[in-house]
Structure formats: C-alpha cells, structure tokens
Write a structure and sequence with these properties.
Shape: globular
Number of strands: 11
CATH architecture: Alpha-Beta Complex
Strand content: 15-25%
Helix content: 25-40%
Largest sheet: 7 strands, mixed
Length: 238
C-alpha cells in the first residue's frame, strides 16, 4: 500500500460552443455579475484548499481563454477538449494523471454552472471522503413528472419520490472514472454525465442533496436567474 496521501483534483470541461444560447459567444464566456460564467464556476473550485489542481478543457480554437486571469492561477492547467463532453473530461483526466494517482479523487464540474456554493462543494467532498464512495450533487424533483409516449401524449406518471435531477460536481476515483469513460466510448454508449459511465461500470453512486441555485446555464433566460442567484450568494455565502 502506498504511503502517498490521496488527494482531490478537479476537471472543468469548457470546450462547448453553447449553440442553444443563440449568442455569438460560447455560454462560458457570457458575462453575468461582473465576470464570465466560466470564471464564476472556476472561482468556487479554487476557493477549496482541498483541491490540488484544476484541469480546464478548452476548445482547440478558443481565442478568449488567454484573457481570463483565473486560468493563469498556479493551480489551474489548460488542455484541449473534444467534440463531446466525455472527450473533454477524458482530456482533463489525462492532464491530471501527470500529477495525480488513480486512487486520487477528482471532481468534474460544468463550466456552465456558475452558482455552485462552497458549502455544497464541501458537503459533497466530505460525504465522499468519509464513505470512500463516489457521489454527485443532485436535486430531488418536486414537480409531477410525466412520461411521453413518443407521440406527444402522456404514457404514465412517474413516481417522483425516487427521482433526482443530476447536478455537478460529480466526484469519483480518477482511475475508475477514466476507465469507465474510456469503456463507454469504446462501446459507443451514450453518456450524459460522469455518473452514467460509473453506473454502466457497475459502480454505486451516492446522491448528495444540492441546491436549486446550482443551475446549468443553457438558454438565455437562465442568465438573469443565475445573476440573481450569484447576488444572493455574495450576500449570503452559506
């Protein structure tokens, strides 16, 4: 058994073009509350002293990253991402593997989730480190949820008490996550988040209750709501 202590790292996939936003800029570079979406997302990760370094995966033609001061932080490294989210996550994991071990923990966080609170981040990390089992932040669904029959009609109503809306960060062992993503890619399986890959690999994944404030900026209306949440966080960080 190695005497090297297990450490925590992070990956921030930021290579998307944000097509659904209908903006000339990728959504991670849109400004809200005095900074870009990317800066807000990155700042919370940097606020945790437990995270040794963060790999940010960028689009190969990204011409804006050089002007983002936080990307020059000593704990931040950049790498070239891919066409799909998992490609960018794998690129980030590969970059971290130069410094990290396979048993180290890694958190993957969406660049488009600027309203993550430090309290929720630390809650997730505490649960994982105490249990030794990977976990994700998630929000319990309170709305009534209908299943579409494929023709625009209701097939049935789902039991909402067992349904959760996945968020990020999602935290797993670096080696296990990398292997799970590589295997899913090899098999051509659809992976919408890191937990999906771990589930397909047969791993158990914990749900850690997060906040509705931790929204993913996807459409223009999300920007105004995110700006309001960021204001609330600045006034009440907890």
């Amino acid at each position: 058994m190695s005497n090297v202590p297990v450490r925590c790292w992070a990956v921030l996939p930021a290579a998307g073009i944000g097509a659904r936003m209908g903006e000339p800029l990728p959504k991670q570079y849109l400004e809200i509350a005095g900074a870009t979406v990317l800066e807000h997302s990155l700042r919370t990760l940097l606020a945790s002293d437990a995270i040794a370094a963060i790999a940010v995966a960028l689009h190969p033609q990204d011409s804006r990253a050089a002007g983002i001061e936080l990307l020059h932080d000593p704990r931040v490294m950049t790498t070239i991402g891919g066409a799909q989210r998992r490609d960018s996550v794998l690129a980030g994991l590969a970059a971290l593997s130069e410094l990290a071990g396979p048993e180290d923990w890694v958190l993957v966080h969406d660049a488009a989730r600027p309203c993550l609170s430090l309290a929720d981040l630390e809650k997730l990390m505490a649960r994982v480190l105490a249990s030794g089992e990977g976990a994700i932040l998630a929000e319990a669904i309170v709305d009534t949820v209908k299943l579409d029959d494929g023709q625009g009609r209701i097939e049935r109503t789902l039991e909402r008490s067992a349904l959760w809306r996945a968020q990020t960060p999602q935290m797993f062992r670096l080696g296990a996550l990398r292997q799970a993503l590589e295997e899913a890619t090899r098999l051509g399986l659809e992976i919408t988040d890191e937990a999906s890959a771990m589930e397909l690999a047969g791993e158990r994944v914990q749900l850690v209750a997060g906040s509705s404030r931790n929204l993913k900026v996807t459409i223009p209306a999300d920007l105004e709501l995110a700006a309001w949440y960021l204001q609330q966080l600045s006034e009440n960080p907890a």
